[in-house]
Specification:
The complex is a heterodimer.
Chain A: H1 2-18, H2 21-40, H3 44-64, H4 69-76, H5 79-85, H6 90-119, H7 127-151, H8 159-185, H9 193-220
Helix pairs in contact in A: 1-6, 2-3, 2-6, 3-6, 3-7, 3-8, 6-7, 6-9, 7-8, 7-9, 8-9
Chain B: E1 3-15, E2 18-28, E3 33-37, H1 44-52, E4 59-66, E5 82-85, H2 97-107, H3 115-121, H4 137-150, E6 155-159, H5 167-182, E7 186-190, E8 201-205, E9 210-212
Parallel strand pairs in B: 3-7, 3-8, 5-6, 6-7
Antiparallel strand pairs in B: 1-2, 1-4, 8-9
The chains are: A mainly alpha, B alpha/beta.
């Protein structure tokens, strides 16, 4: 347990020191959401209707576009070889890196979401469902991003290719994420069906990701 | 963790279409050392990567027997019992000297109380709070060597360990290797430069073929 905590601490520490990555994801999220209302025009009702979908898509892209970072730096300086051979089980190491990625990329995005939701005129009562669903969904997205990053670890500047590779896997999370948020916001009958499916997809991704990534990394080292 | 024996059987490796080596077999016991020699591209680094568990061989086995594992090879292979020093330093530029060493010490299950004395031994004592990005190549190497001191693992794999070290640094390296071997450790090093210690065995890779300098072969046909 101690080595894994040390790794988690190091990854978070590195993240804040080297800047770049966090800024990129947050910057992207901010810029797109801020530009959106200007592009769509001043129709408040239209914005309210599309706000949930827009926030989800942009969150998904922000996480996708930072996927490469999960392993690239560690591969470059040789840390990755050591991380996978000198300590705990590779699967656990990957799980910790996945969690670190979520804490550093997804969590800041979730924290600024309430402010950005205002820009898009998110329907009243939509914020809490949105944050709940996004928290769950983003963890699943990070898990899938980890698989993509592991498969393409040997390719530099692979963000867009990773995005293309795991796009099909992202779509279920997007569909059920948006529908869970919408169902809970408008409090339809049985509002939690989609949420449970979203939770299921996330859990499955979290279980599969460490094993799949470990195999991919072994083949790539 | 104490290693009883390391047995390498019929190991072979391939890079693309090219066969680097095949049917390498040898056995090392505590306190023994092996020097890997051979021209560039002959597979020394690949062999070390395979031994370190960072690369898959084309065929063959690396079996490690410890006291607790008895007559069956260790399940995890070398994971958690070996040091692997390569030209890639595994140091984070935005962390300080002390933070880098602390991380690897914690991660590899070493002794954190030894960090200060290890930094003193490798000559980095005056600069624990300098970012690793500011270190010279030789200083980085010294910081990597400090890891050997804070984490006591019985199996060392060193790939060109003396590169970029100055005279003092090379003497330090020699001393570390001597202490490791006399404490019953096992050492495999690849180097073009003399490392200052007497190796028990030498394995020369020549690209597809290899030879031992002593009668240490398990498989007689390969001499």
């Amino acid at each position: 347990m101690k080595p894994l905590l040390a790794l988690l601490r190091r990854d978070i520490n590195l993240f804040f020191r080297s800047g770049g990555g966090a800024g990129q994801a947050i910057g992207f999220y901010l810029v797109v959401i801020i530009l959106f209302p200007f592009g769509v025009g001043p129709d408040i009702n239209l914005l309210a209707r599309i706000s949930i979908g827009v926030l989800w898509v942009v969150l998904l892209l922000a996480i996708l576009l930072s996927a490469e970072r999960i392993f690239a730096d560690d591969l470059e300086d040789g840390s990755l070889t050591l991380l996978l051979t000198a300590g705990p089980l590779p699967e656990l190491v990957i799980l910790v890196k996945l969690i670190a990625h979520w804490l550093c990329i997804a969590l800041p995005l979730l924290l600024i979401t309430p402010f950005l939701a205002l820009m898009l005129n998110l329907p009243a009562g939509g914020l809490i469902p949105l944050i709940i669903c996004m928290s769950i969904g983003s963890l699943g997205l990070c898990a899938l991003a980890t698989i993509g990053a592991a498969i393409l670890v040997a390719i530099r500047r692979a963000n867009q290719i990773i995005a293309l590779l795991i796009l099909p896997l992202y779509i279920p999370i997007l569909i059920f994420g948006v529908s869970a948020t919408t169902d809970m916001t408008y409090q339809i009958e049985k509002p939690y069906t989609s949420l449970l499916i979203l939770l299921g997809i996330t859990l499955i991704s979290l279980i599969i990701a460490p094993f799949a990534s470990a195999q991919a990394l072994k083949a790539n080292l | 963790m104490k290693i009883n024996r390391i047995i390498i059987q019929n190991l072979s490796a391939q890079k693309g279409e090219r066969l680097l080596f095949e049917d390498i077999s040898f056995e090392l016991e505590p306190g023994q050392s092996l020097l890997l020699k051979g021209p560039n591209g002959s597979g020394k680094t690949t062999l070390l990567h395979i031994l370190a568990g960072a690369d898959q061989p084309k065929g063959g086995d690396v079996n490690i027997y410890t006291i607790s594992s008895g007559e069956t090879p260790r399940q995890d292979g070398v994971i958690g019992i070996s040091h692997f020093i390569t030209h890639q330093d595994g140091l984070k530029k935005s962390l300080t000297v002390h933070e880098n060493l602390t991380f690897w010490t914690e991660y590899m299950g070493g002794d954190k109380t030894r960090i200060d004395s290890a930094l003193r031994t490798v000559g980095l004592e005056p600069m624990p709070h300098i970012l690793a990005a500011r270190l010279s190549a030789g200083q980085k190497k010294r910081l990597m060597l400090a890891r050997l001191l804070t984490v006591s693992h019985p199996f060392w794999l060193l790939d060109e360990p003396s590169v970029s070290l100055d005279d003092d640094g090379q003497k330090l390296l020699t001393k570390l290797m001597q202490e490791h071997i006399s404490a019953g450790g096992i050492l495999i090093a690849a180097s073009h430069l003399p490392l200052g210690i007497e190796f028990n065995h030498t394995l020369t890779l020549t690209g597809g073929r290899y030879m031992f300098n002593d009668d240490y072969l398990l498989d007689e046909e390969n001499i």
